[in-house]
Amino acid sequence: MFKAKVLIKRRPSILDPQGKAVEKGALHLGLNNIKDTRIGKYIEFTVDTDDKKSAEKEVNEYCGKLLANPIMEDYEFTLEKVA
Amino acid sequence: MKPKFGVVVFPGSNCDHDAYYALKKILKTEATFLWHKEKDLQNSDVILLPGGFAYGDYLRCGAIARFSPIMNSVIDFAKKGGRVIGICNGFQVLLEAGLLPGVMIKNKSLQFVCKDVYLSVENRNTDFTNQLEENKILKIPIAHGEGNYFADDKTMKELVNNNQIVFKYSSPGGEISEEFNPNGSTMNIAGIINKQGNVLGMMPHPERACDPALGKTDGQGIFNSIISSLLN
User: What pLDDT, on the 0 to 100 scale, is given for residue B216?
Assistant: First the structure.
């Protein structure tokens, strides 16, 4: 079995109004050096197979078709063998 | 013959009954509900994806709804030329399903916007707009938090060149500018159609502008256009 950890980031060319709004909060905290806040997603799950290749294939399909929208997001993931 | 609208019901749809009511009681056509777990479109002549928050809008708006059993049938239906209209959340589902190009991101203001807006009709030569009066600006309400349409430059050029932009947010007089853009949508886009002309997505709610008792009826023209295109 593998533990998958997926990071989904909004493409640099896509506006992130949420990140901008959150950054305003940083200013209210007096944190004047915070710039370019962008909000993504972190998703983790397990893949019930011992074959790393097939785990990768399944995670890629999960990410590419459902977890991320390739029009506006990029994803990366790691797989770690667990008992 | 009365054309039959199949109104898809996802868990979290909340404009399905409004649409059904407008179609059946005001426009006097046939309508039936299609539960998301079904595959049978029940011989519908046109499919309507209603507004709401399908599957809680978890992950991204429309992302999970797109994989429901009924959507496989709707995608097949659309690919064979069947007419499909997606309203608000329904538009988002069509984008996620790849039946229309582009994505929706959060409104520029970050606020949920619920108000009447004015729409300039950019293409009257479609199955969804052919009965709309020449030069008439439509007054139809919007109610969404993620209606900020975005597509890359290549897609935008295609939309413009193929006349696929059907509705733009405008002033009551038809002026199109940032001032009358409620959500930051690229080029004030409120509704687009696919290249083949059988799938329309729009953020405003025409079903909420049908019953004269509600004080506005500009939505009727959109449904009448669909009905008329099916009868011809």
Answer: 96
